[in-house]
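A quick aside before the break. I want you to see a complete sequence-to-structure record at least once, exactly as it would be stored in a machine-readable document. Don't worry about memorizing anything.
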Amino acid sequence: MGDLHLHLVSDSTGETLQSITKAALVQFEAKDPVEHVWSMTRTIRQIDDIIDSIQKNPGLVLFTVVNKELRAALEKGCRKANVPCVSILDPVMASLSQYLGQESRGLPGRQHMLDQQYFARIEALNYTMAHDDGQMPDGLEDADIILVGVSRTSKTPTSFYLSHRGIKTANIPIVVGCPLPPQLFEVKKPFVVGLTSSPDRLSQIRKNRLLSLKETHDTNYVDMEGIKNEVLEARKLCTKHKWPVIDVTRRSVEETAAQIITLFHKRHQKEESRII
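That is the input. The structure line, written in tokens, reads:
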């Protein structure tokens, strides 16, 4: 079998298609596909170019195009090329339409309009960039969530994932022998969460990190006993301050972020119930 070609056609950024495709592909033992991403597709001329590419590289076509004329042209071209063409959103749209008793507005890229949520995400991203890896501790009170943990516990990628959800997230490394910023222990509003991992996993990740930096000498950074001590001290710190701890050893960034968000919402619900 030759290369697996996937054509992802969207009238917006294409993020939805790419996320759904990625989630579906992990369920199959197939080699990495060749993805042809066609975003902001809003003219017949663009559809013609896409069809031409599909004919040259036949493969499954997945699309999120709401304009009836454009999708009809795409489907017609796919039939001529004898390739399957699937509308990802149709089942969801049909169910929503039936349940709400309304017809879809058919507006392309509506989920990316410059609304309040969009600006909240931009603000959160800017905040997270400025407060990555312990930077600018004076601004910690403005965070929604603060992540703490020893080196290589996915603090930075998790922070940026959360910021993409509109959650202002700061992260602070725990280093044995180095005092944490005093502002961390003074915050009132932010939700502080500790991230940890197994010493074996941390050692492996750190060794790979050093290799990527062309560092071949053994250091305390990868010493197993040292790492065990780091993890133990970090857990003691979190226990002392009653910060919940999440073990990221077998979790993806997405799974870790989902658990953090769940804890974050539970905390808000408790606070609201006390006010009531």
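Two observations worth writing down. The first helix runs from residue 15 to 25. The CA atoms of residues 9 and 63 lie 5 Å apart. We'll return to this after the break.
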